[in-house]
Amino acid sequence: MRNSWGRLTKPKHQLFFFSEPEQLEVAIQEKSPGLPFGVGRSYGDVCLNPDGVLWDCSGMDKFISFDQDTGLLRCEAGVLLRDIQQLVIPRGWILPVTPGTQIVTVGGAIANDVHGKSHHRQGTFGDHVTALRLLRTDGEIIECGPEQNKEWFAATVGGMGLTGIILDAEIKLQKVAGPWIETENIPFASLKEFFQLNEESEHSWEYTVSWIDCLNSGRGIFMRGNHSQVQKGKEPGKLSLTMPFTPPISLVNKISLRLFNTAYYAVNKRKKGTGLTHYEPFFYPLDKLLEWNRMYGPRGFFQYQILVPHQDGCEIIQTVLDTIQQAGEGSFLAVLKTFGDKAPVGLMSFPRPGITLALDFPNKGITTAKLFSRLDAIVAEAGGRLYGAKDACMSPKLFAQGYPELEKFLQYRDPGITSGLSRRLMGS
Ligand SMILES: Cc1cc2nc3c(=O)[nH]c(=O)nc-3n(C[C@H](O)[C@H](O)[C@H](O)COP(=O)(O)OP(=O)(O)OC[C@H]3O[C@@H](n4cnc5c(N)ncnc54)[C@H](O)[C@@H]3O)c2cc1C
After folding, report:
1. Number of other residues whose CB lies within 10 A of the CB of residue 61
2. Cα 248 to middle of ligand 1, angstroms
3. From CA 193, how far away is CA 369, in angstroms rounded?
4. Which atom number of ligand 1 is nearest to the Cα of residue 293?
5. Which of 9, 161, 208, 305 can bridge 390 by disulfide, Cβ–Cβ 3.0-4.6 Å?
């Protein structure tokens, strides 16, 4: 069964799995509408097509070319970012933008125009895609990129899989000396301190991100890093653990949250200072525990990720945190980051200049829905938006308000493609 990371429902799909684009072309002719699927690392229904067809693209996973002199890599859309990193880093190149997990396909990374810890320097994943091939369900193949068929490129980057199926893409990599990052962890006591640290860091640090303790409004750990010239450090262990089963109830509750947040802050406060860290634990700490999403039990969980403008950002984020606390809720994973000024590539790309906060909440039905409606009101009032890759309950009104290019985007939709999210937010 294919599902999304939040495991909020048990969707039924008619699944087509293939390893060659030609097989996909046949599958599309046999049965559409459908939806391209990567590896389901989106949290909500952007990658689901309940009771419909799913075209699982993860089998299209071949590398096509890699020029070691220019750092230009071409691969099929089902290749995982992890496999790219493992191929190119030993050869002196790296993906300039990756999300908090490397178990994501190239197709999924483009379709959600994902961002990472380098947004203030490198923008989004789409900023480094130089070309892609898009298969429409009528059989047409469109080659597009920042220079060629620009309008198709702008609709497809961040287009949530709704403009066609990405067959392959060319990506411009970034030169690096090796896999090591010079890192620094700095505890902060308030949001105000976070913003001060952030401002001084963005000029001289390539990667910045913070964990915040939502139960103790505003304190947290600021993490920053730069690529190192050093060639040797302490290699991370190869072993990954797997959450072996889904417990009958969520393991995330008020008690475990308080224990986790207190312990995480204390441990990281003790580890404050500089270090040399391998890129994997620095970029993808959560990949060490596979299937960790099971700990939320059979009802699953939501990730709620907002973006609000810089103006009054500190106060807005504080209001969001206070609202969560007043509702008696909290989040294990609370990630705070600012986005840089780079104009987004995609019409529907999530990042814009501003502040983003991502929080995980166990699915408690109506209680969670009530909390989200309060948070949505704060986001709407601030002129902000929610991230479609994480969303499962945004209203069409908030979507249209947050994404002013929606009408333009709709002109590029493929009529043979539909998703849970598109039906919920765009009516088809
Ligand atoms: C632990 C964790 C951390 C994360 N951290 C971040 C983060 O820091 N920043 C961030 O931006 N995101 C983050 N994400 C979200 C994740 O990066 C995105 O949801 C990503 O798009 C998932 O890719 P996927 O390959 O799993 O695609 P799926 O989730 O399967 O699909 C995502 C979208 O891509 C479309 N799609 C997939 N393949 C194709 C194709 N070949 N052609 C056209 N469309 C296609 C689907 O239709 C769907 O709309 C995180 C997720 C997890 C689980």
Report:
1. 16
2. 27
3. 31
4. 53
5. 305
Q: Is the CB of 24 under 6 A from ligand 1?
A: no
- Give the list of residues 6+ apart from residue 326 with CB closer than 8 angstroms, or none: none
User: What's the CA-to-centroid distance between 42 and ligand 1, angstroms?
Assistant: 5
First to last CA, the chain: 24
In this structure, the number of other CB atoms found within 10 A of the CB of residue 94 comes to 22
Decide: 155 in ligand 1 pocket, CB within 6 A.
no
pTM above 0.70, yes or no: yes
CB-count exposure of residue 323 (10 Å: 0-12, 13-18, 19+) = middle
Place of tokens 């287009």: 159
What is the position in ligand 1's atom list of the atom closest to the CA of 167?
41
The torsion of the CA quartet 105, 110, 111, 115, rounded to 10 degrees, works out to: 100
Tokens encoding 262: 């207190």
CA 183 to chain centre: 22
Give the pLDDT of the chain (428 residues) as one tens digit per residue. Answer: 899 999 999 999 999 999 999 999 999 988 889 999 999 999 999 999 999 999 999 999 999 999 999 999 999 999 999 999 999 999 999 999 999 999 999 999 999 999 999 999 999 999 999 999 999 999 999 999 999 999 999 999 999 999 999 999 999 999 999 999 999 999 999 999 999 999 999 999 999 999 999 888 689 999 999 999 988 777 887 778 899 889 999 998 888 988 888 888 888 888 889 999 999 999 999 999 999 999 999 999 999 999 999 999 999 999 999 999 999 998 988 999 999 999 999 999 999 999 999 999 999 999 999 999 999 999 999 999 999 999 999 999 999 999 999 999 999 999 999 999 999 999 99
175, β-bridge pairs: 93
User: Measuring CA to CA, how many Å separate 123 from each of 142, 153, 210, 248, 428?
Assistant: 25, 16, 18, 41, 30
Q: Is the Cβ–Cβ distance between 110 and 164 less than 8 Å?
A: no
- Spacing, Cα 101 to ligand 1 middle (Å): 10
CA dist., res. 261 & res. 211, Å (int): 10
Residue located via tokens 């899989």: 161
3-state secondary structure 111-156: HCCCCCCCHHHHCCHHHHEEEEEEECCCCCEEEECCCCCHHHHHHH
